[in-house]
Amino acid sequence: MIMSPYIILDINILNIIKILIKKNIEIVFIVSYKTDNYFIQFSSLIFLKFLMNYKIKIFFLELGFYHRKIYIVDKKYVFFGSMNFDIRSIYINEECLFIMNDIFFLNKIIKNVKKNFFFKFINYKKTKILLKFIYIVSFLNYYIQ
């Protein structure tokens, strides 16, 4: 489970995701419905739309803007900290994550995430030409910054 306000990936991470899917490993992305930066959110939506082709579960947090970054691996480890799941946080910025291997803490996190706020990103409708233009500009803006 990957919970981050932004999901912007490079080819290396996309290849890892493809390998995990071939091994039948479930991947869940949870992102905030509201944003503090529309350009980055539009760029993130491009990747989320692409990831839908790979049977990845995608949820949006319904209420408010959540800037949490929580990663749960193998229902055993909880990673949390300042790292967004995007290429700038992974390769450029100096981010930090804490790792917990505590079942009580893990269950508390999962319960909190599940009870509060999500709806599924099931069907992505065709977008108008203006929205497509905004997606492209925002995507390019993300790499220029």
Folded structure, characterized:
By secondary structure, the protein is of the alpha/beta class. The chain has a single domain, classed as Endonuclease Chain A (Endonuclease, Chain A), CATH 3.30.870. It is built from five helices and nine strands. The chain has a seven-stranded mixed β-sheet with strand order 8-6-5-1-3-4-9, with helices on one face. A two-stranded parallel sheet has the order 2-7. α2 crosses α5. It is globular, with a radius of gyration of 15 Å.
CATH level-3 fold name: Endonuclease, Chain A
CATH superfamily: Endonuclease Chain A
SSE succession: EEHEHEEEEHEHEH
**β-strand number:** 9
**Structural class given helices, strands, pairing?**
alpha/beta
Total tally of structural domains: 1
SS field, number of helical segments = 5
Oligomer: single chain
- The N- and C-terminal alpha carbons lie at a distance of 28 Å
Can you tell me the CATH class?
Alpha Beta
Shape, per Cα inertia axes: globular
> Per DSSP, what share of the residues sits in E-state strands of 2 or more residues?
15-25%
Helix content, binned percent: 40-55%
Largest sheet properties: 7 strands, mixed
Strands ordered across the widest β-sheet: 8-6-5-1-3-4-9
Global mean pLDDT: 79
CATH architecture annotation name? 2-Layer Sandwich
Radius of gyration: 15 Å
Low-confidence stretches: 122-126
